[in-house]
């Protein structure tokens, strides 16, 4: 450990700050990954199945295929005020896990009064290519905002209130 700290130019006799701890953990993880080589024992007169001779091994060796994602067309881009909410009665009504159109809450849910139910949107600056669906409504006084659903109240509070770019994709 001291060797790693010295090679990285970190004074190992002082208390490490958070950034130094993260760098140290990454360096140790990289060292572990690159130095972990499997040990192979060789025995005489032992037949070892190969990928070509065993159909089960051949099938397992093929990498899993990724799901085919259809291309997305951006119809419009808008900057909106975005807030966040979670499923607590003080932020919703007396049925906090049911949206205004009767669906269960889920990751990828947004509420917006100015878009029709079922509209697909992206928040690319915050969530990359993740697609969100409008399936909830806000209080009617918020006619130009978007509300992003989060699983926990803490996550919703961390999100806060922001001006974000959204892409309407459907």
What can you tell me about this protein's structure?
- It is built from five helices and six strands, in the order αααβββαββαβ.
- The chain has 170 residues and is of the alpha/beta class.
- The protein has two domains: 1-35, no CATH class; 76-168, Barwin-like endoglucanases (Beta Barrel), CATH 2.40.40.10.
- The longest helix has 18 residues, at 18-35.
- It starts with a helix and ends with a strand.
- Mean pLDDT is 78; it is low at 36-40.
Give me a quick take on this structure.
This protein has 170 residues and is α/β, with parallel strands linked by helices.
Features:
single chain; 170 residues; Barwin-like endoglucanases; six-stranded mixed β-barrel
Radius of gyration: 26 Å
- The CATH homologous superfamily of the largest domain is termed RlpA-like domain
Overall structural domain count: 2
Helix content: 10-25%
Secondary structure tally, helices: 5
Give the end-to-end Cα distance, rounded to a whole number of Å.
53 Å
CATH architecture of the largest domain: Beta Barrel
> What is the CATH C level class of the largest domain, in words?
Mainly Beta
Q: In this structure, how is the largest beta sheet organized?
A: 6 strands, mixed, barrel
Strand content: 15-25%
Strand order of the largest sheet: 1-5-2-4-3-6
Low-confidence stretches: 36-40
